[in-house]
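Something for you to look into today, if you have time. Could you write out one complete protein record for me, on any chain you like? The space below this message is yours for that.
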Amino acid sequence: MVIGKEDRILDIVSDYPQTEDIFKPYDEIVGKCVMCSHLFETVEEFSDMYGLDMEELLNKLNRAIL
């Protein structure tokens, strides 16, 4: 895995712009714009905040950058 749970969303999207498409569907799941409200959180912090499956999110992100 290249992207890990300690990586900040801002750094992920900055380094891998294609991952924005992975975060976009989470806008509806969490009820707010992820790119607007959660850029400075890590994947783990974001997942914990909303009770999301962190491993699933990490897998999606890492598949997007292959």
The chain has a mean pLDDT of 96.
